[in-house]
């Protein structure tokens, strides 16, 4: 593997690091190794296929620069590769930015790179994702992932410390379009030894990806979810990670996040420990510690058929002292969920706010509980008649379990 080791003098800013990544990519791939340093980013660093970006752990710090917001002058329509602004002071070609309004977020937001500036018009490297009208207060903001990749394969981020400087950011990163570390429409991605703190948005996120591995990484103090696989992402492994003090979930399975294993992880003092929702099926949570979250330790979100949660297992986990402020129990299973196994866990309640160890709603089907130890749960199990089954359903779940048809909804 080609290795390009940068000195502090060669890695003075995001543009310099980006140039090194592009140079290695042009040579067929390899590793860009950053030195011990702290650098403030005015744009996101974009990975390319077959490139690894590595640092020196806690001694290599990528820090987000202060966020700024620029109002659009008025209506501008979908698909245009430019936006009109009231001022362009401080903007530069090559910077990464987001465009959003007060009406809708999610995938209606635009994330792009500035390609030109002409007067108060700013060019973007692709078309805006929706019509932006003056009455919805559209803005362009210097909001971006610190490290990201779009439509790439065989890439990695290793041994970096990412400081989001949340207090300096007036606007969060849209979780569908970015996170501190973010990938979209990509495959064969590894994130290891990465520490994220105080990011205004999600910590580590990926959308429409396959074959993602997140190892030995930490997300603390984000304003969104800690770790967020979403939008059909399939065949992913999250192992040896932790997420604490995040304002939303420690781990958030988004829509159709399937065949994912979350193992040997710790989720503490988040809003919810682990949240599982629409079409989030064939997932395995094992050997995790989930404790002292404000809501449930594990929450299966209520979603109707045919998109209800099914074929998931929680096993060998320690689920203790959650639901400190709200929630119906340590593990909550809603109506419509089916073929769920909760096995061999240590489940302990919160004495100051007594509640069930496992709470299931009427309409849940084929919920299998076995080998769990309950402490201080009142009651241990709250489930209507007909919900529980003695024999486990045949559940195929987790990383490495899918046939080729598991990926047919993705273009990667």
Keywords:
eleven-stranded parallel β-sheet, mainly beta, 39% strand, Pectate Lyase C-like, 412 residues
Proportion of strand residues: 35-45%
Any idea what the radius of gyration is? 22 Å
Strand order of the largest sheet: 1-2-5-14-17-20-23-26-29-32-35-38
CATH architecture of the largest domain: 3 Solenoid
Number of strands: 40
Description:
- The protein is mainly β and 412 residues long.
- The chain has two domains: 48-64 and 143-382, Single-stranded right-handed beta-helix, Pectin lyase-like (Pectate Lyase C-like, 3 Solenoid), CATH 2.160.20.10; 69-141.
- The protein has one helix and 40 strands.
- It has a twelve-stranded parallel beta sheet with strand order 1-2-5-14-17-20-23-26-29-32-35-38, covered by helices on one side.
- Strand 1 (3-5), helix 1 (14-26) and strand 2 (30-33) form a beta-alpha-beta unit.
- The longest helix has 13 residues, at 14-26.
- The radius of gyration is 22 Å and the shape is globular.
- The two termini are 24 Å apart.
Describe the structure in brief.
The chain has 412 residues and is mainly beta. The chain contains 1 helix and 40 strands.
Furnish the topology, listing elements before pairings.
Elements: E1 3-5, H1 14-26, E2 30-33, E3 37-41, E4 45-46, E5 51-54, E6 60-64, E7 69-71, E8 82-84, E9 96-100, E10 110-118, E11 121-124, E12 139-141, E13 147-150, E14 153-158, E15 161-163, E16 181-184, E17 187-192, E18 195-197, E19 204-207, E20 210-215, E21 218-220, E22 227-230, E23 234-239, E24 242-244, E25 251-252, E26 258-263, E27 266-268, E28 274-276, E29 284-286, E30 289-291, E31 298-300, E32 310-315, E33 318-320, E34 331-333, E35 338-343, E36 346-348, E37 358-360, E38 365-370, E39 373-375, E40 381-382
Parallel strand pairs: 1-2, 2-5, 3-6, 4-13, 5-14, 6-15, 13-16, 14-17, 15-18, 16-19, 17-20, 18-21, 19-22, 20-23, 21-24, 23-26, 24-27, 25-28, 26-29, 27-30, 28-31, 29-32, 30-33, 31-34, 32-35, 33-36, 34-37, 35-38, 36-39, 37-40
Antiparallel strand pairs: 7-12, 8-11, 9-10, 9-12, 10-11
